[in-house]
Amino acid sequence: MKWIIAFLIFSLLILFHEFGHFLVAKLNGVEVEEFSMGFGPRILTTVYHGTRYSLKLLLFGGSCQMKGMMEEYYDDDDDEVPETERVPEEGSFESVSVGRRAAIIFAGPLFNFILAFICAIIIIGVVGYDPAEIMSVAENSAADKAGILPGDTITSFMGDHVDIARDVSTWFALNDLNEDDTVTLTVTRNGEKKDVTYEPDVISRYMLGLTYNLDDVPATINAVSEGSPLDEAGVRAGDVVLAIDGTEITGSNEMNEYFDAHPMDGSEVTLVIQRGDETLEKKVVPYENRSVSLGFSYNMGRVNTSAIGVLKYSVIEMRYWIGTVLKSLGALFTGRYGMDELSGPVGVVDIVGTTYEETKDEGPLITWMNMLNMIVLLSANLGVMNLLPIPALDGGRLVFLLLEGIMRRPVNKKVEGTLQMITVVLLLFLMVYVMYNDLTRLLTP
Question: 274 to each of 235, 238, 252, 346, how far by Cα in Å?
Answer without folding.
Answer: 10, 9, 14, 45
